[in-house]
Write a structure and sequence with these properties.
The protein is of the alpha+beta class. 41% of the residues lie in helices and 25% in strands.
Length: 233
């Protein structure tokens, strides 16, 4: 003779999940709903009765009513490598009319009369926040050191860019002065060639100063080139 089908609606249907850490009591909940028009007796059993506290663990559900069952897992040393075999079973039967002595009635019922549903227990260990914080703390000094190094490089590059800009401005100014000097020399040569300078007592043009200026200009331009080459590399 086959067992009758479960009349109650059980939530969750197949698994009871307990989320750690398990160094303190952890509670999971089960909801029983009676959709029928008859009263239903229920009783909850487990394969590990010493590890769980179930409230209520038995009772009577009136027609079209529901009840929430609190299942408290006692603290224990959790080992992820250990396979969990804990299970729960919800047994039900239609209640007789009149007064009911639950304890006595459960003793006289035969297994063929009972409707039962089984649920397995699942233990979940969340990611430890302490480990995440430690990892973040360990990585912080590296991040700080890298940031400081980057800031130092940026500062040096900014200084170098300012120096390069200043040298370019000085180079441009020297080029302008060189052009102006060339124009003055050309004008002076033209003036001398035209014979307009009749004063023979006028001091001669100091042509020696012209090569010196060219030499100084060449030295400065070369120095600027060397500095620019270093920053580019």
């Amino acid at each position: 003779m086959s067992k009758p089908e479960q009349v109650l609606q059980i939530e969750p249907q197949n698994e009871l999940r307990f989320r750690g850490p398990f160094n303190a009591p952890v509670t999971s909940y089960m909801k029983l709903t009676n959709p029928s028009d008859k009263r239903v007796m229920f009783k909850i059993k487990t394969t590990a009765p010493k590890k769980y506290c179930v409230r209520p663990n038995s009772g009577v559900l009136e027609p079209n009513s529901n009840i929430e069952i609190a299942i408290c897992l006692q603290p224990f040393l959790f080992d992820p490598a250990e396979k969990n075999k804990h299970k729960f079973m919800v047994q039900t039967v239609f209640a007789p009319d009149g007064e009911i002595n639950l304890e006595q009635l459960w003793k006289v019922l035969s297994p063929e009369q009972l409707m039962d549903s089984k649920l397995k227990c699942v233990f979940e260990m969340p990611v430890e926040q302490n480990e995440s914080q430690e990892d973040a703390t360990k990585s912080s000094p590296k991040f700080t050191t890298t940031t400081e190094a980057n800031n130092s490089v940026v500062t040096e590059l900014q200084k170098a860019a300012q120096e390069v800009q200043q040298l370019r401005e000085e180079e441009s100014q020297l080029r302008q002065e060189n052009l102006q000097l060339k124009e003055e020399i050309l004008q002076l040569k033209q003036h001398v060639a035209s014979g307009t300078t009749a004063n023979r007592y006028a001091p001669p043009v100091q042509e020696e100063t012209i090569p010196m200026l060219f030499i100084a200009f060449s030295v400065i331009v070369g120095f600027i080139g060397i500095i620019l080459g270093k920053f580019v590399l």
